[in-house]
Amino acid sequence: MAISKPLIDITNVTALAGEKEILHNVSLALDAGTCHVLMGPNGAGKSTLGHVIMADPEYTLSSGSIAFEGKDITDMPTYKRALAGIFLSFQAPVEVPGVPLYSFLRTICAARPELKMTARQFRKHVHELADELEMDEAYLTRDLGVGFSGGEKKKVEMLQLLLLQPKLAILDETDSGLDVDALSVVSKGIDAYRKSCDGTLLIITHNTRILERVSVDRVHVMVDGRLVDEGNASLISRIDAHGFEAYTQE
Amino acid sequence: MSEKRAKKRTEVADIDRSLYDFKKSEEGYERFDDGLSADIVREISAKKDEPPWMLDLRLHSLELYEQMKMPSNWGPSIAGLDMKNISTYVTSGSAQVDSWEEVPEDIKDTFERLGIPEAERESLAGVGAQYDSELVYHNMREEVAELGVVYSGIEEALHGPYAPLIKEHFMKLVPPTDHKFAALHGAVWSGGSFVYVPAGVDVPFPLQSYFRLNAAGAGQFEHTLIIVEPGANVHFIEGCSAPKYNVANLHAGCVELYVAKGARLRYSTIENWSKNMYNLNTKRARVEADGVIEWISGSFGSHVGYLYPSSLLMGERARCEFTGITFAGAGQNLDTGCKVHMAAPDTRASVSTKSISKSGGISTFRSSVVVTPKAENARTTVSCQSLMLDDESVSDTIPAMDVRNATAQIGHEATIGRISDDTIFYLMSRGIAEEEARAMVVNGFAEPISKELPLEYAVEMTNLIKLEMEGAIG
User: Fold this and answer.
1) Pick from B35, B30, B304: which is nearest to B187 by CA?
2) Which of A53, A60, A78, A106 has the highest number of chain B CBs within 10 A, making it the mutation to test binding with B?
3) CB-CB contact of B309 with B338 (8 Å)
4) HEC string of chain B?
5) Which residue among A26, A61, B249, B324 has its CA within the 20 to 30 Å range from the CA of B339?
6) How close, in Å, is residue B421 to chain A by CA atoms?
7) So what's the pLDDT on residue A211?
C-alpha cells in the first residue's frame, strides 16, 4: 500500500480536567480502515482520550495537537468534528425527555448532506438497522434514552453508528456492567459498521470478551495517562491472562 | 424554594421577535385621552350604544377602581405602570366584518403575517380578530352555526337575543370587586368574544380569537364570555401579540367560562405580548357536575405578567386539567400559575406546569388549591418543573394548599433544574451545534405542553422557543 497520512494523528497531547493533568504527552496515529483497541486499568485515562478527541469541554489541552485527514482540528468544536466524520459512543448515553429517538435520528442525519434521504428512505433505513440490531421498533417513538436499560442505550448508540457511518468510530465501553446481550449488541454493531463502510475503529475497553469476534489490528495500553505499550492482537490474550500488573509495578 | 443558579457558561443576547414585532401606523385612528375618568368611561359606553345596565356596571367599577389600592407585596412590581399614561380606548374606526377582504389592508396584513386567515381556512370553526380596542373581524363556519353555536363579538351579542343571558353572566364570575384590575376592566372593557354552545353540541373544530394590540401606550381590555351548556364540548383558542414600544402597554382582559353539567371546555392560550406589556389578566371557569375544564396556557411575552386562571369545581365529579408553560427571558418577570377551588365531592384537579427562565428572566409559579369541607374524596396533583438556562435567571415555586376535608388526597411536586453540560456535549458529539442542542433540550422539556396544542400552535410554540434560544450562545 502506498504511504499515506493517518486518518487521525494525535501528537504529544497533554490534557487537564480543571487543574489536574489526566493525559501526559500522548501520541497515537490511526490509519484509515484499521481497528485499534485501547486497554488499561480503571482510571488510566482511556475514556479521557476518547473525549479529548471529541473536544469535550470538560478537558483542556495544555499542549499537543490533533489532526484529522491531514487537517489540524485542535481548535475545532465538537459538532464540527462530528460532522467531519468522528463518532464517540458514550458509556452512559444521556436522556433527553420530549425528544423522540426517531426525530433525533432524523435531525442528526439532516445535519449531514452526504446522508440526504427522503422521509420514506430514512424510515426504511432506520427500520432495517433496528432489525439488524434486534431492536424493538417501539423504542423509536420513545424519548431519547428515557427509561432505556443499559442494553437498550447501547443499541441506540450502535444504531447511530450504523446510521452515520463515521470515518472514525471511538467506542467507549464500560469495563464492567455490560451483560451478555449488550456485549453481543456491541460486537454485532462493530461487525456491521466495518462491513458497511470499512471505517476506522478505536475501541476503548479492557473487557476482552467484546473483542472475541473482532479482528483487531493494533492494541495500545494506557496506564496513568501515558501510552506504555502497543502490539498486535496477541497482546489482548496476554493482558487477559496477566492483567496490567506488568505495567503498574514499575 | 427560590433558587438562583451559580454556575453557567452561556452568554445571552437579545431576541429576534420580528415575526411579531412589526408596527402599523395609527394615522386616522380614534384615540381617547390617556388616563381614566368618568367622562372617558361614559364616552366608551356611548360609542357602543350599550344598555343602561352596562353603563351602570362601568361607573360602579370605576368607583371601585378608584377606591382600591394598587397591589403591593405581590409578585413582580408594576410600579412602571401608570394609568395616567395609558389610553384605554383606541380604534381604527373599521367596522367589524365577516370577510377578510373587507378588513383594511394594514390590519389584514397584520393578521395574515400572524397566520390567522390561513389557520381559519384550514382548521378552525370560527375566528374573531381584535385590533386594539375593537373587533375587526368575526366569522364562523356555516355548518357550525347550523348546530346553534353562537360565536360573535360580545358587544354585538349585547344587542341580540342573547343579551339577557349575557347580563346574567357578565362579570358574575369575576366581579369588579375581585381586585383592582378587575374593577378597571369593568370600567373600560372593550371588545372580546361571546361563545354559546347549546346542550349536547360537540363543536368539531376549535374557535379562535386573536387579540392584537398595535397602539403604543394603550390598554386592551377585551372580555371573553363562554357558556357551554350540558353535555356540550368545545375548544376555544386565544392568541395575543403586540409590537414592542418603549412605553408601557397594559392588557387587563377578563375571561369568564361557564361549563355546565357534563360539558367540556378546552381553553388554549398562546400569549406572546411584547416585552413592554403589563399583562394583568383574569380568567375564571365555573364547572358543574361531571363537567371538565381543560386549560392549556403558554406564556411567552410581556414585561410583567400576573396570570392565574382559576377553576371553581362546583359540582360532583367536576374536573380541572391545567397544563401550562411559561418562558421568561431578558427583562421579563412572569408570575403565573393557577387556582383550583374544589367545592363538591369527588372533584379532581391535575395541574402540570413547566417554566423556563433565561437571560435574567424571572419565572414564578404559584398554585393555590382550596378543598372545602363539602369536597369529600377530592383529589389533586400539582407538578411544576422549572428549567433555568443560565446563572442569571431565577425560578420560584410557591404552592399554597388549603384543605378542609380529611378525605382529600393532595399531591405536589416541584423540580428545578438546568441543562446538563453532558447532555449538550452528547448532542454536539452527534453533529448538532450548541445553540441548536439547547433549543432541542428546551423544546423537549416543553413537549408535554406543545403536544396538547393543535399542530399549527405547537409549531408556533416550537418556533417561539427557537426564537428565544437564538443568540443564546456567545
Assistant:
1) B35
2) A78
3) yes
4) CCEECCCCCCCCCCCCCCCCCCCCCCCCCEECCECCCHHHHHHHHHHHCCCHHHHHHHHHHHHHHHHCCCCCCCCCCCCCCCHHHCECCEECCCCCECCHHHCCHHHHHHHHHCCHHHHHHHHCCEEEEEECCEEEEEEECHHHHCCCCEEEEHHHHCCCCCHHHHHHHCCCCCCCCCCHHHHHHHHHCCCCEEEEECCCCECCCCEEEEEECCCCCEEECCEEEEEECCCCEEEEEEEEECCCCCCCEEECCEEEEEECCCCEEEEEEEEECCCCEEEEEEEEEEECCCCEEEEEEEECCCCEEEECCEEEECCCCCEEEEEEEEEECCCCEEEEEEEEEECCCCCEEEEEEEEEECCCCEEEEEEEEEECCCCCCCEEEEEEEEEECCCCCEEEEEEEEEECCCCCEEEEEEEEEECCHHHHHHHHCCCCCHHHHHHHHHHHHHHHHHCCCCHHHHHHHHHHHHHHHCCCCC
5) B249
6) 9
7) 81
CB distance B261 to B285 below 8 Å: no
For chain A, where are the alpha helices, taking DSSP H only?
A: 46-53, 78-84, 101-110, 119-132, 150-164, 180-197, 234-242, 245-248
The upper half-sphere exposure of residue A70, i.e. CA atoms within 13 Å in the direction of its Cβ, equals: 2
Tell me the CA end-to-end span of chain A in Å, nearest whole number.
38
pLDDT value of position B450: 81
- The residue ranges of every structural domain in chain B are 3-429
Q: Which of B304, B257, B322, B252 is nearest to B281 (CA)?
A: B252
The CA-CA-CA angle for residues A50, A54, A59, to 5°, reads 80
Q: For the segment A10-51, what is each residue's pLDDT rounded down to a tens digit?
A: 999 999 999 999 999 999 999 999 999 999 998 899 999 999
Q: Is residue A161 part of a domain?
A: yes
The cell numbers describing B393, all together, are 435567571
User: In this structure, are residues B117 and B111 in contact, taking their beta carbons and an 8 Å threshold?
Assistant: yes
User: Which positions in chain B touch A79 (Cβ < 8 Å)?
Assistant: 428-434, 437
Task: Confirm whether A132 is domain-assigned.
Answer: yes
Name the residue of chain B whose CA is nearest to A163's CA.
B430
**Structural domain total, chain A:** 1
Domain that includes residue A107, residue range: 8-248
The three-class DSSP label of residue A241 is helix
ipTM: 0.96
> Measured between beta carbons, which residues in chain B are less than 8 angstroms from residue A97?
444-445, 447
The predicted-structure confidence for A97-108, as pLDDT tens digits, reads as follows 999 999 999 999
- The CA distance from B330 to B300, in Å, is 11
Residues of B in contact with A76 (CB under 8 A): none
Q: Which amino acid is at B24?
A: K
Closest chain A residue by Cα to residue B425? A56
Residue B439 cell numbers, joined = 433549543
In a domain, A3, yes or no: no
Residue A29 is part of a domain; what is its CATH number?
A: 3.40.50.300
CA distances from B222 to A46, B231, B289 (A): 64, 27, 29
The two beta strands, B150-153 and B193-197, are antiparallel
- Give the Cα separation of A91 and B350 in Å (integer): 38
pLDDT of B222 strictly over 70: yes
Determine whether the interchain pair A96/B432 forms a contact, defined as Cβ–Cβ distance below 8 Å: no
pLDDT-above-70 percentage for chain A: 96
Closest CA to B250 of B277, B281, B283: B277
C-alpha grid cell, residue A93: 448515553
